[in-house]
Write a structure and sequence with these properties.
1174 residues; alpha/beta; Helix Hairpins; five-stranded parallel sheet; 33 helices; 19 strands; 63% helix
Length: 1174
């Protein structure tokens, strides 16, 4: 069965979607996230198997509920083409799974049995887990176990007559275990062991009846007591010997411990002192020293400030010549041009000298020949030059062949570049494509231009805004200037108040003559004075307010003017940086952004072009071998010339010219003389200017005067700057000195406080001074050290003796032993132990003989019968063990057969999946297999290591599962059930190499007759399929018609012609099942949008790159792009003509100029780098 078209009326987010012309092979649908790819795959599932709540709850009811939910699939099978339609109620889709309607191309209707004949035994779980697989189904191998597909994975061939090898091995293991144990108790072998043990006990009991046996037993008891006594005495002797050994070992340590103890007693009582008294005292002393050091540093810094201030001279003579110095700075450009002229003439003089030397070298003039003298060619020279010329002639032929091959490869690269130029749509700015051209650089350049244009537009807007603000500020400034003079009305009012105040004050002062009382007079004076003062103050405040506001306005005006100038300067810089263009700024910006978008879409094409150029460059690198051979021939020619006294740089044409010409040396010398005269005139002018500048610098009292006039001008300007800077520096140093003096006083107070703390610590310790405190601390430390040594020695003694006791216990246990001769006591104890050992050995031997006699006497008739029964039980036990061993051997043989069977008789499905996995992982993993006794999968790598599927990485597991699905689909196809594979983004967790391998595998799989529909939202995956010439289509956003595929070979869509009035046979709907309605949130109404028509150029990497694959030449035939010149000349004899014995030689020589060889230096650098890294 093959799906040839899809039409979705209403399902999920899709509404009126139609896809036609799906081919028999592979089709890739590309679309962004939330484009509806998974919805499209679920629609195909639902049309084939119905709408169910558990699988379609996300998609039904659809977003648009205006019509019935569902759609139609166009399918083709061996029975012909027909349409499958399934619709249901959009409001309540799960009440009815939807009735299937089948229509043929001729308009006839059918029933669901036709679909069942195509699907066969593939039910919905098998189809969803094998043929229509998403990323979730791919990652879960357990979904296969619930279907019949698991049987194809885990089935192995059974044994003869349907007898399973596993059942036989399980039966043998049960029989073997039954010999040892049974369900109700012990088995046969265990029962025989118990019976044998019982008979042995009976034999022992019957051996106790003889009288001699009782006497022997008594003797044995007496011997045991004597043996025990001897062993006890031996233990006591061992203890004494051990004590003597310990005494010898402990004696040096014991003496050392007594020495430490006596020294500690002699030291006497030690005063208790604070543990950190000395550290605190040392810390205070350190802080005092640090403070003193800081005082010294402050003194030094103040002295340095004074010295620095004294070293800052005020250059008054330089300041007097400030006007003349500024004038000299204005003439600096003219002086610089004069110096530039001198340097240019000197450079030309050096160049003409170099040309003269080059002409002499070209003519081969060396120490052996004088310029212009004729050069004679002898037979000896001809004989020596014959071999190198012949070798160069042969090498020339090989290099010519290499050049031809290089030209062909370059032409192939240029053809690829022409194809790329055709895709640029005639853009004149992008027509240049060479080795240095990069679309990435063009994208960056165009992006920078777009940013500059945006910034240019923004600057224009800011300038317009700034000019409006300048106009407002300028208008306000004019108003404030007018307000500097108070208005007449205001002045009149203030004058009236001022006059009234003065009149009141005068009346108060002279009111006594008019009969006013004193209190009234003084009140009039105060009111008048207050009025006068208030009037003056108000006038002053009004004037001050106007001045301040005017100053603020001037500041704003200056700031805005500066910003306006900066913006104008920035606009000029941007205008200068921008390339010239026609149209307005907005049009240029829009065109640039459009161009940038087009360039970004062409990035994949540029990658293809770079790849083609890279192949051409690789071919040129291989041509270095042919060039190296010619270089060796050149070196032989050059060495031969040197041996003949000629220049090694002499070429055959130069050699021919050398016979009758001397060159153009005289003409070059004449040109040199003219340049020399011009240089002398320019130097005289410069010297005159320099003397004038030196005179001015001498008057300004400069310390050192440079020879360069420009540097003298710079020295004078720097001197003025230095004079101003020294003046400012003096004021700064004076302020720093005052700050250092305040810090000096603060640190001095801190030193006095530290001294007080130091005296307090000494007094609290009971010492007279610091020296006395140190002496007391030394005695305390000495006592602590002796105590530690004594305790360590005591612990060592305890480790040696093994006794964890204190000092008193050591003296009681070992004190007496240390006073005797421990060595003699040790020797005596060892001798006594040897005597005890000899006696003990004799007693043990006698006891053994008595035991043997007792055993002999115990034998009787009953003992023989018991022994016979024990022998019979022993024989039965051997038979049972032999049977157990036989079963074990058979089981081992069957296990060997089992392992070989398990290795060689894997299902065909797993063998095919192993081939797919090896192709997906580049032979990293080569086999998938399953054990005979359990339904699990294992993977073998190329080293033969077996791994469980669970330990593989996520991406590798998905590659295993993908191979299994492909193998299962092939198995169903071989059984006559060929269904399309629908894959939804199953390659997202693959790396790029394995993605390419998987894409190639799917492409090849589809070429074997399997239809594959692949959905992806990843552009790099779409590009991989596109590079493999797989049909690629774009999915529109939720609605639209996809008619144009994104591929070169676009199949013509097959029109679906439905009958005008087909006779529809509707199957009866199944009885609805009661379901619980689930409240769904209200969705916004879908807006009507236009149908999307997909263009081939809307996606990157869609245009054809190359019609046919190119062939890479063989490495030894790779050409190099080198141009050569061919020269021929005749060699004459000594007499100037060819004699009878003179041979005519035709010397053909090719001189290779490295500057004309493209990438030759790059190739040599890469070879040197490779040798260095190796």
């Amino acid at each position: 069965m093959r799906i040839s078209g899809v039409k979705i009326d209403n399902f999920g987010v899709w509404h009126d979607l139609e896809i036609q012309g799906l081919p028999e092979g592979m089709t890739v649908f590309y679309g962004p996230n939330e484009a509806g790819k998974s919805t499209l795959m679920q629609f195909m599932r639902s049309v084939l198997y119905g709408y169910h709540r558990d699988t379609n709850q996300r998609y039904l009811p659809p977003v648009d509920r205006s019509g019935p939910a569902g759609g139609t699939l166009s399918v083709a099978s061996h029975d012909g083409h027909f349409l499958l339609s399934r619709h249901t109620d959009a409001a309540a889709p799960f009440r009815n799974p939807g009735a299937l309607q089948v229509h043929s191309r001729s308009g006839r209707t059918g029933n669901s049995s036709r679909l069942q004949s195509v699907l066969g035994a593939v039910d919905e779980p098998i189809f969803n887990n094998v043929f229509a697989v998403g990323l979730t189904e791919l990652q879960q191998l357990g979904t296969l176990n619930a279907t019949e597909a698991a049987e194809r994975l885990y089935s192995l061939a059974s044994g003869t007559d349907r007898v399973s090898l596993v059942d036989v091995m399980r039966s043998l293991r049960t029989t073997r275990m039954r010999l040892l144990t049974e369900d109700d108790g012990n088995g046969l072998v265990m029962r025989l062991l118990q019976k044998r043990t019982s008979l042995d006990n009976e034999v022992e009991r019957m051996a106790e009846h003889a009288d001699r046996w009782a006497e022997v037993q008594g003797e044995i008891v007496r011997l045991d007591e004597e043996i025990a006594k001897l062993e006890g005495n031996r233990d006591e002797l061992r203890r004494q010997a051990r004590l003597a050994e310990v005494a010898i070992q402990v004696q040096p340590k014991w003496e050392l411990w007594r020495q430490y103890n006596n020294e500690l007693i002699a030291l006497g009582d030690v005063e208790e002192l604070p543990a950190d008294a000395l550290e605190r005292l040392a810390d205070l002393n350190q802080k005092i020293e640090q403070k003193k050091a800081q005082l010294e540093d402050l003194k030094t810094q103040r002295n340095q400030l004074r010295e620095e201030a004294a070293k800052l001279p005020l250059e008054e003579e330089l300041a007097k010549n400030a006007a003349r110095i500024r004038a000299l700075v204005d003439q600096r450009n003219w002086i610089a041009s004069l110096e530039g002229q001198v340097r240019r003439l000197e450079g030309q003089l050096e160049e003409i000298d170099l040309e003269i030397r080059t002409e002499q070298e070209r003519l081969g003039i060396t120490d052996g020949f004088r310029p212009g003298a004729p050069l004679r060619i002898t037979r000896k020279m001809i004989s020596k030059l014959r071999g190198p010329v012949k070798r160069m002639k042969e090498d020339r032929q090989r290099v010519t062949e290499a050049k031809r091959q290089a030209t062909e490869l370059r032409e192939e690269a240029e053809s690829v570049q022409k194809r790329i130029k055709q895709l640029l749509n005639g853009d004149s700015s992008l027509r240049r494509i060479d080795d240095k051209w990069s679309l990435v650089a063009e994208v960056e350049k165009t992006g920078a231009l777009a940013a500059a244009l945006r910034r240019r537009a923004q600057v224009d807007e800011n300038l317009a805004t700034m000019e409006d603000r300048l106009d407002d500020v300028n208008l306000r400034r004019a108003e404030l200037l007018e307000d500097q003079l108070l208005p007449p009305r205001t002045l009149t009012t203030l004058g009236m108040f001022f006059t009234a105040g003065v009149m009141l004050a005068i009346c108060g002062l002279f009111g006594g003559y008019f009969g006013f009382r004193d209190n009234v007079r003084w009140l009039m004076v105060l009111v008048g004075a207050a009025g006068v003062g208030a009037t003056i103050l108000m006038k002053h405040l009004m004037e001050i307010g106007s001045v301040d506001e005017l100053d603020e306005t001037d500041r704003q005006f200056g700031m805005l003017t500066k910003q306006h100038q900066e913006l104008a300067s920035e606009r000029e810089d941007l205008e200068g940086a921008l390339p010239p263009g026609n149209g307005s700024l907005a049009d240029r910006l829009r065109d640039t952004e459009t161009k940038l978008g087009n360039l970004e879409e062409l990035l994949p094409l540029d990658s293809r072009r770079r790849e083609t150029l890279k192949r051409a460059e690789d071919a040129e690198k291989l041509a270095i071998q042919a060039a190296a051979t010619l270089t060796e021939s050149q070196r032989l020619w050059q060495s031969t010339l040197r041996s003949l006294g000629l220049s090694s740089k002499l070429t055959p044409p130069q050699f021919k010219e050398l016979i009758g010409k001397t060159g153009n040396v005289r003409l070059l010398e004449k040109q040199r003389q003219e340049i020399q005269n011009d240089l002398e005139r320019a130097q005289r002018d410069l010297q005159s200017v320099t003397s004038q500048l030196t005179e001015i610098a001498t008057q300004s009292l400069l310390k050192s005067i440079d020879e360069s006039p420009l540097k003298i001008v710079d020295q004078l300007a720097d001197g003025m700057k230095r004079h101003n800077k020294n003046t400012e520096r003096r004021e700064s140093l004076r302020g720093q000195s005052r700050q250092l003096r305040r810090e000096y006083e603060k640190i001095s107070k801190g030193i006095h406080q530290l001294h007080a703390k130091r005296l307090s610590i000494i007094a609290s310790s009971g010492a007279e001074d610091e020296h006395d405190l140190k002496r007391m601390l030394d005695r305390r430390n000495q006592a602590l050290e002796l105590t530690g040594l004594r305790d360590d020695t005591l612990r060592e003694i305890q480790d040696i003796t093994g006794l964890r006791v204190n000092q008193d216990e050591i003296e009681q246990q070992l004190g007496a032993q240390l006073k005797e001769d421990n060595a003699s006591r040790l020797q005596q104890a060892q001798q006594e132990m040897q005597g005890r050992d000899v006696r003990l050995k004799e007693l043990i031997d006698r006891r053994g003989r008595l035991l043997q006699e007792s055993q002999t006497l115990a034998n009787s008739r009953q003992l023989a019968e018991a022994q016979l029964s024990a022998s019979m039980a022993e024989q039965k036990l051997r038979d049972g063990l032999d049977q157990w061993k036989s079963i074990s051997a058979i089981t081992s043989m069957l296990e060997s057969v089992y392992k070989r069977y398990e290795r060689d008789r894997q299902p065909d499905t797993l063998k095919e999946a192993s081939e797919y996995l090896a192709e997906l992982t580049s032979n990293r993993y080569v086999r998938i297999w399953t054990p005979l006794s359990e339904d699990v999968l294992y993977v073998d790598d190329h080293d033969g290591k077996t791994l469980s599927v669970d330990v593989l990485s996520r991406g590798t597991r998905e590659q295993v599962f993908l191979g299994l699905r492909l193998a299962l689909a092939s198995d169903y196809s071989r059984r006559g059930l060929q269904l399309p594979l629908i894959l939804d983004d199953v390659l997202v967790n693959f790396d790029l190499p394995r993605t390419k391998a998987a894409a190639k595998l799917l492409r090849d799989y589809s070429l074997r007759g399997h239809q594959i529909i692949f959905f992806t939202c990843h552009e790099h995956i779409m590009n991989v399929f596109h590079d493999l010439d797989v049909l690629v289509r774009e999915i529109p956003r939720h609605d639209g018609v996809v008619d144009e595929p994104i591929s070169l070979a676009t199949p013509k869509p097959i029109p679906l012609v439905a009958p005008q009035n087909p006779d529809v046979v509707t199957e009866p709907d199944p009885a609805p099942r009661p379901i619980k309605e689930v409240a769904r949130p209200k969705l916004p109404k879908k807006r009507k949008t236009k149908k999307v028509v997909v263009d081939d150029f809307e996606l990157p990497a869609t245009a054809p790159i190359a019609a046919t694959p190119t062939e890479v030449p063989v490495p030894h035939e790779v050409p190099v792009s080198v141009e050569y010149d061919e020269y021929e000349f005749e060699i004459v004899g000594e007499d100037g003509v060819l004699g009878e014995d003179d041979d005519e030689y035709e010397y053909v020589y090719e001189y290779v100029d490295e500057s004309e060889v493209p990438n030759l230096q790059l190739i040599r650098d890469e070879q040197e780098y490779t040798e260095f890294t190796s």
